[in-house]
Amino acid sequence: MLWLGSRTWDGVVVDWDWQPNDKLLHFWMYGTLGLLLRLGWQWAGRKPAPALLVLAGVLVGLYDELHQRTVPGRSADYRDFIVDVAAIAFGFILITLIHRVFRRTQTPGSS
User: Fold this and answer.
1) For residues 15 and 103, which has the higher predicted lDDT (pLDDT)?
2) Taking the CA of residue 32 as centre, how many other CA atoms within 13 Å lie in the half-sphere pointing to its CB?
3) Per mean pLDDT, which of 15-19, 48-52, 89-93 is the most reliable?
4) Would you say 27 and 83 are in contact if contact means Cβ atoms under 8 Å apart?
5) Residue 64 contacts residue 44 (beta carbons within 8 Å)
6) For 52-104, what is each residue's pLDDT tens digit?
7) CA 69, 71, 72, 76 torsion: positive or negative?
8) pLDDT value of position 76
């Protein structure tokens, strides 16, 4: 994600209205980050508080936006950051809910 955020995209021809798709791309990428943070938390032997993992993801999004201020042809956008935070939370919560559903269905003696 940080590599993509550091690209200038100069000379890249985009055939669609960029802004709405930009927010979808942010949601997809940071939602995936939230999902991976939750899966990593689930599989880790020593587990930090979930809020710390979400905070780590939020800091990645913040760093990405601030770093883009220094990349020619890019800019920091608070709306991108808001989408990043929402997507991280969404991915984390989605996997949490899915994990709970599967845990219930696999519990012996449950109906």
Assistant:
1) 103
2) 6
3) 89-93
4) yes
5) no
6) 889 999 999 999 999 888 888 777 889 999 999 999 999 999 998 998 888 88
7) negative
8) 83
Q: Is residue 49 part of a domain?
A: yes
DSSP assignment of the chain: -HHHHT---TT----S-HHHHHHHHHHHHHHHHHHHHHHHHHH-SS---HHHHHHHHHHHHHHHHHHHTTSTT----HHHHHHHHHHHHHHHHHHHHHHHHHHHHTSTT--
Total domain count, the chain: 1
Expressed as residue numbers, the domain containing 95 is 18-105
Residue 13 counted as domain residue: no
Query: Domain for residue 66, yes or no?
Result: yes
In a domain, 33, yes or no: yes
**Would you state the pLDDT for residue 62?**
94
CB-based contacts of 12: which residues, under 8 Å, 6+ apart?
none
**The pTM is what?**
0.76
